[in-house]
Each structure stands twice: as C-alpha cells, then as structure tokens.
Design a protein that fits this description.
six-stranded parallel beta sheet; about 190 residues; 6 strands; alpha/beta
Length: about 190
C-alpha cells in the first residue's frame, strides 16, 4: 500500500474527459485548492471530447492521455487521493481500482459508486464544488483519515475479485436452474 504522506500533493482522476464525468468540477476545484495548497497537483488521466477545452481553460490541471494498465497502477501508487466527480456511473471500476492500490477515494454520491467502493469512500454531491473543496481540504490535512479510508478501501477491493463475482453468479444460476416455472393454465377456446 502506498505510504500516506503527511502533506499530500497529488490528486488524480482516471476516466473519460466528458461532461458526464464531472471533469469541469475538477477544473473549478483546482484553482481554489491550490490557493491553500500551492504544491497540489491535480492529474487527469484519460481522453475524450473535453480534452482540448480543459487544456485551454484549466492550466492548473495536468492532463495526460490514455495509459497502459501498468502505467495507471504506477500513477495510482504515486497518488494521495483519487477524485471521481461523475454524474452517472453504471459501476465505477476506476474507483475500485484506486482502492485496490490503497488510494483513498472521494466520489460523487451515486448508488453505483457506493456499491463499487463498498461505502469505503467519501461521497459528495456531484455539482457542489464548495463541498468538494471543503472535503478535500479536510482530507488533505488529516493523514489518519486518509490512512483509514485507504485501508478500508483496500479491504473492500480484496473482496471484489472476478473469482468471487463468478462464484456468486454461479450460485444464482444454480438456484435459478433448480426452480420450476409455473405451468401456464390451459387455454379454453
């Protein structure tokens, strides 16, 4: 697990650079956070339709293109907090991957992200930049809380393997196969 630094300086987002992912919120937060924490870096890893606009209007953000899985794991290991302000997610595997590496997660309060992270994250409204800045500022100043979130997230991620998911699916399919469907009533005509 990455070492929790007393003064973190590296927030990271990994995902598509599109409206739905809330990346403009990251741009709004970056300037506010860097007033208090001048050494803070906010890295966005990914690509998408907003990439050029973000580069032009948000110089405080470090945008990096799509990387290999090994590079992403390396980026996560260098990160202090994973931020995920998405407006919609069907699952949220990026947050789960951050937890698996031992990075505390701050994410939008969405059912899919609560499920993906096992609740071991800080959840915030996706459009409230002030709430994000306040929560991240508190988290940056609280290494014990970051450590606690990192441990809880890593423990949850250890239970979210493909093997465990396949075993649960197999149990469900066996149950479904042993049930008998009700017989349709004969038609009278």
């Amino acid at each position: 697990m990455p070492q929790v630094r007393v003064q973190p300086n590296n927030l990271v987002y990994i995902g598509r650079l599109e409206e739905n992912k809330g990346v403009w919120l990251l741009a709004a937060m970056a300037d506010q956070l860097r007033k208090t924490f001048p050494a803070l870096q906010i890295r966005l890893i990914g690509s998408g339709p907003l990439e050029s606009e973000l580069r032009k209007h948000s110089p405080a953000l470090q945008l990096e293109g799509i990387q290999s899985h090994e590079q992403i794991v390396s980026v996560l290991r260098e990160s202090d907090v994973f931020v995920f302000p998405s407006h919609y997610e069907s699952f949220g595997i990026a947050a789960l991957e951050a937890q698996a590496v031992g990075v505390p997660v701050v994410a939008s309060d969405l059912p899919a992200l609560r499920e993906a992270t096992g609740g071991a994250a800080i959840f915030l409204p996706p459009d409230d930049a002030d709430a994000w800045v306040a929560a991240l500022s508190d988290l940056i100043l609280d290494p014990a809380r970051r450590e606690s979130l990192a441990r809880a997230g890593r423990a949850h991620a250890a239970t979210a393997t493909w093997e465990i998911a396949a075993a649960k699916l197999e149990q469900f399919l066996l149950l479904a196969a042993t049930r008998t469907a009700p017989h349709p009533s004969p038609r009278r005509g």
